[in-house]
Design goal:
The protein is α/β, with parallel strands linked by helices. The chain is built from 18 helices and 9 strands. The chain has 2 domains: about 1-305, Up-down Bundle (ABC transporter transmembrane region fold), CATH 1.20.1560.10; about 320-530, 3-Layer(aba) Sandwich (Rossmann fold), CATH 3.40.50. It is about 65% helix and about 10% strand.
């Protein structure tokens, strides 16, 4: 948070200035009212006119002050929200893949939408109210010191008491805000699960079965929100009672001073007008400090980068990849068991086996997508965990079973951030048997894919994904079920393309095993090894 404010220090200074200006609005209104009442003490018509003009001018000034305040504050609000969204995005990008997969996509949507909205609402509202409250308090205390120093000291003493009580509520308040945030995230996840299966629920007519759990989710969230709101209300009620009691006592004391001739009517009106705003400013400001701390906690959860013990060594493979006694568990389920294999540079390797033997898991371990394995994975005798993940990405590609498509053209989905080479792209389209289809499209390679490629077939999406990795031309290529959505003829064309590449190929497949086995340098049956 400090770095964010320092980066936007000019905007933050203007924002605070804009907030402090709002503090003058209440003071101006009170002064206008006091001057208006003081007209009764005027001794001449000229004095009456002057006081009337002063009342009108000062009474209208809050409107202009609000406009100026808004103008000063809006730039900082915009810049901070842009930075927070960028930081939240960077946090997701820096999250290790294994850790990223432990949450659902809706959790990250909630991070970018719900949590940021809560931060936006609480952070700026808190700063505005704190500046307004304590700014009004400071101006009011200065005025009261002129009218009655003893009342000013009593107000300061009451304010200190309110602040001390507020600190007792700080930790429970922050804990409640955290629970509320977690409850919102849980609600989003569970509702998403129900909506994700909505088609199945309707087809099997089991709406009643899921209605109860849905109502339970809603009830739990509302109970947590009610508890949080009740806690905030209890804090406010206690402070309200103290403030009200003190305010009445000061009214009585100021009236006694007026009756005794120790205070003018103008001074009495000032005390009556300022007393309420001063005390309630403290109550509001103190409670907003807790709310501000809660919003800072939310900011930290949104932007705090996850811990990742990534290596620092540069990836380089000149000889081989070796696994020694490699083990991997999903919970208590032992998937890879003391696996020992060796893959030489340039080899074409097929990995197959029954479902559940860890074929994809092995690929994910070798590509550093899973790092919680035991045993060793050595690249040229260098432990894989010591190699920088970004460096490994620069030297390896991965064709997954799920093929994500951006809402962009076929060309942009393939080249991504690489330099565009038309001849190279066209050659790759021919290699993955997409050339005839692409050239039949009205816009060719500029044909736009929509909603994760829903306007093309599964096989076309799969081949676009493979073309993406071929275009990047990495030293090692991990391929997981490349022919899952393809017919036999297209599969063989694709196999021959992959086998002709001058790179290390590590492929998982459960189809066309005879065809592949005859053409691979090494065949690993995990059903026998695991």
């Amino acid at each position: 948070m400090k770095e964010l404010l320092y980066k936007n220090k000019k905007g933050f200074t203007l924002y605070i200035l804009g907030c402090l200006i709002t503090a003058l609005t209440g003071v101006m209104s009170s002064l206008a009212l006091s001057i208006g009442f003081s007209i009764y003490e005027a001794s001449s018509s000229q004095e009456i006119v002057l006081r009337a003009i002063g009342t009108i001018v000062i009474g209208l000034s809050p409107v202009l002050l609000q406009v100026i305040s808004r103008f000063l504050r809006i730039g900082f609000m915009r810049d901070v929200l842009i930075d927070v969204r960028h930081l939240a995005y960077q946090k997701m990008m820096k999250t290790p893949i294994e850790q990223f997969r432990q949450k659902k996509g809706d959790d990250y949507v909630a991070l970018l939408v719900n949590d940021i909205n809560v931060f936006e609402q609480d952070f700026f509202l808190s700063i505005l109210n704190i500046a307004f409250s304590y700014g009004s308090f400071l101006v009011g205390i200065i005025v009261l010191f002129i009218i009655s120093p003893i009342i000013s000291w009593l107000v300061i003493g009451c304010s200190i008491l309110i602040f001390i009580l507020t600190k007792f509520f700080e930790k429970p308040m922050r804990d409640n805000v955290k629970r509320k945030q977690e409850a919102n995230a849980s609600y989003n996840e569970q509702v998403s699960n129900i909506l994700g299966g909505l088609e199945v629920i309707k087809l099997y007519q089991v709406e009643d079965r899921f209605r109860g759990p849905f109502y339970g989710i809603v009830k739990r969230l509302e109970m947590i929100k009610r508890k949080t709101n009740l806690f905030q209300q209890n804090q406010f009620v206690l402070l309200e009672w103290i403030a009200s009691t003190f305010q009445i006592a000061m009214y009585i004391f100021a009236t006694a001073l007026y009756i005794q001739g120790n205070m003018t009517l103008f001074g009495l009106i000032i005390v009556f007008n300022f007393m309420g705003s001063l005390i309630w400013s403290n109550v509001n400001g103190a409670s907003m400090i807790n709310r501000l701390n809660g919003s800072i906690d939310i900011f930290n959860r949104i932007t705090e980068s996850p811990h990742w013990d990534s290596g620092s060594e540069t990836f380089e493979m000149t000889h081989s990849i070796v696994t020694k006694d490699l083990n991997f568990y999903y919970g208590e389920h032992h998937v890879l068991k003391d696996l020992n294999i060796k893959i030489d540079k340039g080899e074409k390797v097929l990995i197959y086996g029954p479902s559940g033997t860890g074929k994809t898991t092995l690929l994910n371990c070798l590509s550093q997508n899973l790092t919680s394995y035991s045993g060793e994975i050595l690249i040229d005798n260098q432990e894989l965990k010591k190699i920088d993940f970004e460096s490994l990405l620069q030297g390896s590609g991965y064709v997954r079973q799920q093929h994500f498509m951006f809402d962009a053209s076929i060309k942009d989905n393939i080249i991504l951030d690489e330099v565009y080479d038309e001849e190279r792209l066209f050659d790759i389209l021919k290699q993955v048997d997409l050339w005839h289809w692409v050239t039949s499209l009205e816009q060719g390679v500029n044909h736009k894919l929509l909603a994760n490629g829903t306007n093309v077939s599964g096989g076309q999406r799969q081949r676009i994904s493979i073309a993406r990795e071929l275009y990047k031309d990495k030293e090692i290529l991990f391929v997981d079920e490349p022919s899952a959505s393809l017919d036999d003829e297209t599969s063989r064309v694709l196999y021959d393309t992959l086998l002709s590449l001058d790179k290390t190929l590590i492929m998982v497949s459960h189809r066309h095993l005879n065809y592949l086995s005859e053409r691979m340098d090494q065949v690993i049956n995990l059903g026998e090894l695991v």
